[in-house]
Design brief:
The protein has seven helices and ten strands. The protein has 259 residues and is α/β, with parallel strands linked by helices. A six-stranded mixed beta sheet has the order 6-7-8-3-9-10, sandwiched between helices. α2 packs parallel to α4 and α3 (106-119) crosses α4 (135-147). The model has no long low-confidence stretch (mean pLDDT 93). GO terms for molecular function: ATP binding; ATP hydrolysis activity.
């Protein structure tokens, strides 16, 4: 079977400005967790936006599940660091929203909401409003909402950036468990090297002089059943962080590069 996502020779930019990205080749296999690491402004979100069909590339191809992406890609879920829960809707209604928008029959919505609220440990919060939730619960609700229509690929753009370190670690464990239980494929953008190592099967580093490209790739060999609580003490963890740190340093744009 072909890869779930195949990006080849991708170039992208905005308006009349020069390309932000060029020559980006990235393949994501089904069930894989790939993180994109890179300096601020290098074009990480732009890769996700081209994959989601929200931005039309200037050159190259984005093939999702064997078909070129043309228009909005409805096969992906997208979670950002923004809190986009509707404050006037209860959590169960917020999570059900994508199903209503897709006109999923009413009888199917209830069981799916139940499944995803359970998966993300939110059953007790079903009837609460977003303002009554902690930061971590809101993140879990947003994750449930991004996953409830069972997209094959989850795009995550710094989804935990606003959380404190302890909550972030909790969310990492929740996310890995959810990935294991659902088999969803993830393309994850972060600035945080430790987060990329903890979560991913593979990390790609984007950067270099404008237009940016992929400058480094690193396999993360911890497997699907990694023990998140103790992973940071794994003898290979620090070495992987060090290698990625070095790659990230060399991915920084030269002084005076337009950003
Ligand atoms: N809608 C837009 N219009 C014009 N320029 C844009 C737009 N979106 C992004 N850019 C520019 O494209 C470049 C890449 O942006 P992008 O958001 O992809 O970077 P990033 O690597 O995700 O950055 P960060 O880590 O800071 O979120 C930046 O220089 C940004 O200013």
């Amino acid at each position: 079977m072909s890869a779930l996502l195949e990006v080849g020779g991708l170039a992208a930019g905005f308006g009349t400005a020069p390309d932000v990205l060029a020559g980006v080749d990235l393949t994501v296999e089904r069930g894989e967790f790939v993180s994109v690491l890179g300096p601020s402004g290098c074009g990480k979100s732009t890769i996700l936006n081209c994959t989601a069909g929200l931005l039309v590339p200037r050159a190259g191809r984005v093939v999702f599940d064997g078909r070129p992406v043309e228009g909005v890609n409805t096969g992906v879920g997208y979670m950002t660091q923004d809190d986009t829960l509707l404050p006037w809707r209860r959590i169960a209604d917020n999570v059900a929203l994508p199903l209503r928008m897709r006109r999923v029959p009413k009888g199917e919505i209830g069981p799916l909401v139940e499944r995803y609220l359970t998966l993300l440990d939110l059953r007790d919060a079903a009837q609460l409003y977003p303002a009554q939730l902690s930061g971590g619960m809101k993140r879990r609700a947003l994750l449930a909402r991004s996953m409830i229509y069972e997209p094959e690929l989850l795009l995550m753009d710094e989804p935990f950036a606003a959380l404190d370190a302890q909550l972030r670690a909790q969310m990492h464990a929740e996310l890995r468990r959810t990935v294991r239980e659902t088999g969803v494929t993830v393309l994850f953008v972060t600035h945080d090297i430790g987060e990329a190592v903890a979560l991913s099967d593979r990390v790609v580093v984007v950067g270099g002089p404008r237009p940016s490209g992929i400058v480094h790739e690193q396999a993360i060999p911890f497997g699907t059943d990694r023990e998140m609580e103790t992973l940071r003490f794994h003898p290979d963890f620090a070495a992987l962080e060090r290698d990625l740190h070095a790659a990230l340093q060399s991915a920084r744009p030269p002084k005076g590069d337009p950003r």
